[in-house]
Specification:
Blueprint: E1 3-8, H1 12-25, E2 29-35, H2 38-48, E3 52-55, E4 58-59, E5 62-63, H3 64-68, E6 77-82, H4 88-93, E7 98-101, H5 106-135, E8 144-148, E9 153-157, E10 161-167, E11 170-175, E12 180-183, H6 187-195, E13 199-203, E14 206-209, E15 213-217, E16 223-226, E17 231-233, H7 236-246
Parallel strand pairs: 1-2, 1-3, 3-6, 6-7
Antiparallel strand pairs: 4-5, 8-9, 10-11, 10-14, 11-12, 13-14, 15-16, 16-17
Length: 247
């Protein structure tokens, strides 16, 4: 899993140095933005919605805590990186995961990033568990499925899924709003969960939502016309099972 990070420091050399260290020693941390002032940091956080933010404490126009106080909800993990240690107590009041002193020690950086990664993964697991619990009280087609991607997890209502298509070790979800989501898991991984929600495997590479089937065409070997206008093949071994399901 990629950790999307933002580096906030008023000195270009410090930002470049930290970016280089992360690239070399923490390759799963992707630097998606940088900021050199509190105002830039606030804008970048609101725009990019990072998972992890590396924050210098002393910034032009005031310390970084003034910027943090302007945020309604801190949804990201924080690692403070600074030359001054007198801010440590206040840093942890903002739920900072760690506090690194400059110059940054490589081993301390790796340890801090590991701690942040564990916290972010735990947050995602909690979201999955909440979705699992919520699904217990929903009708089958009102349930949601968690689709993990590199930088986020989408929770998609089952009824919005028209079909799923295998692409090697990936599965492409085609939704009714013309959106597509590619997930790094095989079609078989999703088959058992979705079959109980009105889906059926029509082919080695295709799993379809019965509620989105518009027409069963019997010529040309047989295929389905779906609600989005797409055509899905039917394998010979699946034809009888599909006919039973549509009766």
């Amino acid at each position: 899993m990629k950790i999307r990070s933002l580096i906030v420091d008023d000195e270009t050399a410090n930002r470049e140095n930290l970016t280089g260290l992360l690239h070399r020693y923490c390759p799963h941390v992707q630097v998606i933005g940088e900021a050199s002032t509190n105002e830039e940091a606030l804008n970048q956080i609101n725009t990019l919605d990072p998972d992890l933010v590396f924050l210098d404490v002393r910034m032009p126009g005031g310390d970084i805590f003034e910027m943090l106080e302007k945020l309604e909800n801190i949804r990201f993990a924080i690692i403070f990186v600074t030359a001054y240690d007198e801010y440590a107590f206040k840093a942890f009041q903002f739920n900072a995961l760690d506090y690194l002193l400059k110059p940054v020690d490589i081993y301390k950086l790796i340890e801090s990033v590991t701690k942040a990664t564990d916290a972010i993964n735990l947050k995602e697991e909690n979201l999955r568990l909440k979705n699992l619990v919520d699904n217990q009280n929903r009708h089958e087609q009102d349930k949601r499925i968690a689709l993990p991607q590199d930088d986020k997890i989408d929770f998609i209502p089952i009824r919005q899924i028209i079909r799923c298509q295998a692409e090697s070790n990936y599965t492409r979800f085609i939704l009714d709003n013309k959106r597509e989501i590619l997930v790094s898991r095989t079609l078989k991984d999703f088959e058992a969960a979705l079959e109980s929600c009105g889906f059926i495997r029509t082919h080695q590479s295709h799993l379809v939502n019965l509620n989105h089937i518009q027409t069963l065409v019997k010529r040309d070997g047989g295929y389905l016309k779906m609600s989005d206008g797409s055509s899905v093949p039917i394998s010979r071994s699946r034809r009888e099972e599909l006919n039973r399901s549509m009766m």
